[in-house]
Write a structure and sequence with these properties.
alpha/beta, 6-stranded parallel β-sheet, two-stranded parallel ribbon, globular, binds zinc ion
């Protein structure tokens, strides 16, 4: 390899690593991107992305409400427009509603104006439907390119990362795998990410719903209690 090619390869590898790090849940390379609460207390935040998506969101709310657990839902504006009563129930039941973009479309992250419109349109939908204006934002795919972070900050929103409850959750492996995998990952202050939808498309989430009740029971047996993301990070939930 001649010197020019070697230099080009090094730059390419560097750009690749930098680009990839913008999707790692714990990477702080472009600015603060909290993925856990700063605490030694046995508290954990359950978070659910990509909803509402029926009947799964309602079944999940039944599980949480039965166990008196409050969770944080990062919802997609377009999905809230489709299932507004589910979004309202999240807030009425004492869970926290966060913004997870309007359309969950990757193309909207490539430019700053596209990103800003995604945030704003979702804020409009969620606040019109639920009567609260979210102060928490989780970017789709946990993308935290610099202009994504600055767009979030400019709107007075707190960006939120987390820890994926199970690397294969998207493919809906058996619920007992999801429960066991998430239980192994939990540390004091964890913010576990699950999905009650899939991007803006919906789709079956029955294994996730079935995993959550046993996960709550096992973590409680180990002395954990459950908080919402705003309380864990010490920030407001709503504007
Ligand atoms: Zn998502």
């Amino acid at each position: 390899m001649n010197r020019a090619w070697a230099a080009a390869a090094a730059v390419g590898a560097g750009a690749g690593l930098t680009g990839w790090s913008a999707f790692r849940s714990s990477s702080q390379v472009f600015g603060p991107f909290p993925f856990r609460g700063d605490t030694d207390a046995k508290v954990v935040a359950l978070t659910f992305d990509d909803g509402p998506n029926e009947p799964y969101t309602s079944r999940l709310l039944d599980v949480l409400d039965d166990r008196d657990v409050r969770a944080t839902f990062f919802q997609v504006g377009r999905c809230a427009d489709r299932f507004p009563s589910s979004t309202r129930r999240v807030v009425e039941s004492g869970h926290v509603l966060g913004n997870h973009s309007f359309s969950h479309a990757f193309s909207r992250y490539l430019t700053e104006p596209g990103q800003q419109r995604e945030i704003e349109r979702a804020q409009e939908s969620l606040s019109r439907i639920a009567g609260v204006t979210p102060a928490l934002y989780r970017p789709p795919w946990l993308c935290h390119w610099p202009w994504v972070l600055s767009s979030i900050r400019d709107r007075g929103l707190q960006v939120v990362s987390g820890t994926f409850g199970h690397p294969l959750e998207i493919f809906q492996p058996p619920a007992r795998w999801l429960t066991a995998g998430a239980e192994r990952l939990v540390r004091p202050g964890s913010m576990l990410i699950f999905h009650d939808g899939q991007e803006a498309r919906g789709g079956p989430r029955g294994q996730t719903v079935a995993a959550i009740g046993p996960l709550i029971d096992r973590l409680r047996d180990r002395g954990f209690s459950f908080v919402t993301v705003d309380k864990l990070l010490g920030v407001p939930a709503y504007a």
